[in-house]
Amino acid sequence: xxxxxxxxxxxxxxxxxxxxxxxxxxxxxxxxxxxxxxxxxxxxxxxxxxxxxxxxxxxxxxxxxxxxxxxxxxxxxxxxxxxxxxxxxxxxxxxxxxxxxxxxxxxxxxxxxxxxxxxxxxxxxxxxxxxxxxxxxxxxxxxxxxxxxxxxxxxxxxxxxxxxxxxxxxxxxxxxxxxxxxxxxxxxxxxxxxxxxxxxxxxxxxxxxxxxxxxxxxxxxxxxxxxxxxxxxxxxxxxxxxxxxxxxxxxxxxxxxxxxxxxxxxxxxxxxxxxxxxxxxxxxxxxxxxxxxxxxxxxxxxxxxxxxxxxxxxxxxxxxxxxxxxxxxxxxxxxxxxxxxxxxxxxxxxxxxxxxxxxxxxxxxxxxxxxxxxxxxxxxxxxxxxxxxxxxxxxxxxxxxxxxxxxxxxxxxxxxxxxxxxxxxxxxxxxxxxxxxxxxxxxxxxxxxxxxxxxxxxxxxxxxxxxxxxxxxxxxxxxxxxxxxxxxxxxxxxxxxxxxxxxxxxxxxxxxxxx
Length: 515
Hints:
Layout: H1 6-25, H2 35-47, H3 52-70, H4 79-103, H5 109-124, H6 150-174, H7 191-203, E1 216-223, H8 240-257, E2 266-268, H9 282-295, E3 299-307, E4 311-320, E5 324-330, H10 344-350, E6 360-361, E7 369-372, E8 375-381, H11 388-396, E9 402-406, H12 416-431, E10 435-439, E11 445-447, E12 453-456, E13 463-470, H13 477-481, H14 484-514
Parallel strand pairs: 1-2, 2-3, 4-6, 8-9, 9-10
Antiparallel strand pairs: 1-13, 3-4, 4-5, 7-8, 10-11, 11-12
Helix pairs in contact: 1-2, 1-3, 2-6, 3-4, 4-5, 4-14, 5-6, 5-14, 6-7, 6-12, 6-14, 8-9
């Protein structure tokens, strides 16, 4: 506020930065999940009592401290892209902080603050150019006491629970006067928000869990590795990635024949497991068919295929050992500047790197329910695992288990692969589905419906395995109700912000009239 002492302002800034850094520590690969409510609590404390304008730039400061390390994997593309992404995404946190400033004057403000946090994450997952739902608070809770809330209200409810817990901790520090209690117990009432903060994750243990349904499927997972690194991960020589994955598929087939692995019912290869279009290139088609015929079961191949003469699609393609390519799923949520170029003419003129995109991808328009052998899998392609609606739509269409094909080759050994695996853990609990992830360079994994990683690969190695996966069909509450909890939380937060702003203006008018 105007006239605020510099010591107080400095304390606010330090709290915002400390909050952002602490929130980052909750995310993979560190996975210190308790740091998420602590970090959000510090950010809330830095905003408490500040006017909207000051709260906005404090929120921006905290967001930058969080996102700079949180999305450091973007540096592979370029430091300029990384800084622009952080600068853009931090605006959403600034807007949330400005809306929250008057809300702190309301009773039960931790509830309304949690709703505003959900609103902020929804907005940045929507705009600009398709949104960027990465680094949501929920995705720091792949395996924590907050995780069970995913089965009730999906990722938004998990984010809300984390933000509410953090806000309650901040309440206990900055707003403890409201809990001063007269009488023998003195200031014991100050412990009330702390007790409520502890209760939020503990209550997650009461969320009903789902049991096995007595049906399993053996899934072969292949990780073939790539020859290059960074932006040139696929290398300069064509067909190397294709041969790597075909050879690893044959190695899996041999291990089955030797009795070292159980026979799979289906096999899953990663996104971009062939760097040549098998529809147009006979050599690629033959290499894939030979390897699939060798393993002898339907195989999910990841391919980038031509659509006409100018476009392409990122495709999950079912390959039968007898009849060849069949049913497919085309990726719906495309990566801007990676699979297509927004504002193409301007961007290509300003950044030479944008030409690496090549043909422009076009999105699919159908969910990824694909019949493979004894099951109908739910195909999700890489970046899409961060989008609630895409994963939910695939499950509702009958996909079980979920299969995430991904290509993280450009970001190997960064914090992206473990962050993406954390999303798969949350999705497993959210929808009561096993999740199988196949990645070109790692991390390939099998996640149980309880969100536990049962098997995973190391990065930058060729590997394969056959895992026994439960097939579950029972839907969670989150799957059934969809986005309703998210909308309820957002409306709650927005209504509180609107009411607080209206009441603030009314008080200002009264003061002017009294003067």
